[in-house]
Amino acid sequence: xxxxxxxxSVNWAMTLFYAVAIVLGIINGLYGSGFTHDVAAFVSTIFVxxxxxxxxxxxxLTLITTLAGLGSSxxxxxxxxxxxxxxxxxxxxxxxLAAGLYLLFAPENVNQASATAAALPDAVSxxxxxxxxxxxxxxxxxxxxxxxxxxxxxxxxxxxxATSKLPEGSREKDVLTAFFKGLQSILFLLVRGLLKVLPIGxxxxxxxxxxxxxxxxxxxxxxxxxxxIVTANLVQIFIILPLIMAARxxxxxxxxxxxxxxxxxxxxxxxxxGTLPVTMSCSENNVGVHPKVARFVLPVCTTINMxxxxxxxxxxxxxxxxxxxxxxxxxxxxxxxxxxxIAAVGNAGVPMGCFFLSASLLAxxxxxxxxxxxxxxxxxxxxxxxxxxxxxxxxxxxxxxxKDMKANRTIxxxxx
Length: 416
Hints:
By secondary structure, the chain is mainly α. It has 17 helices and no strands. Helix 3 packs across helix 13. Residues about 1-10 and about 110-130 have low confidence and may be disordered.
């Protein structure tokens, strides 16, 4: 989800930029010459390379900096631990739900006949034991060089947790934290710059897709793809999260009613961070969450709790892998439930994070991403629903942590 609000003028300018790129891509794809098609292919290839360049380090650094920020005090650590547990649980459930709906709806390929056959990853072609062994890195650099996503995530988790265990205020921890945050800030600047010129890449993707469509490609499966994502988000909002809260002894209707203003702002602003002040106000004043909990949990959740993003990444990656001719096995789905969940946590601070991460992960695996150009115009609607889901999930986590802390009489120990 987008994590900062931009001015209306910038939004309109970027919307116009995207619209022009899409229209030009369609015109070029349908009526362009061989030369203009080659130019579009050149542009799209460059953007695929740029996605690969930032994908792995971006996810690794955001995960490291998030885990490195764990509080060292007992009460802070306890509240953060419960926040992280609820966040990971709801995120994994969201990804698993999306996987189940993907299997249920079974979206068709956009073009079964011309799907590009791709070599199956080692994780699919070998035994499960071999696959698990391949995840354990034998040096620090190789997983990054080979774009082994799961190995990089393991390294990031290990480094982040190890950094969090260094003595608070020590020179080592301060230097390491500043170093990782500095690298993260540089990558975020690169990402923002890339996204400003992303319509140029979309022009290339749209052109390439239209050229393929002229060869008989069919887009019927895309409708089922969108239905899968939207259904996964709505079921998570209205069924899964309320059931989880009810199991923890909370009244989900009361919490949903109290958080309604924040959810409305999230839906129309498409910004979890921009909605945060409203989220905290509703949580404290309408739901009755203790201010110390709300002001501790909600900023953390705004950073790492991305239920909607996990569902989008999982469905999008599986769908484009399927279209690339890669066999979708139970092992593939299980692996991507984990990857999508962790990548969603690592999505913090990235504008258009879900869309960008999905494209980056796919490009890193050499999976064609032309379809991302078709998905983009509809992503705004998906983003609205996902942002509302993320804020709703944040609110649920805060309410559950508040109930746990009041039961354990831990709130008064929390530092302001």
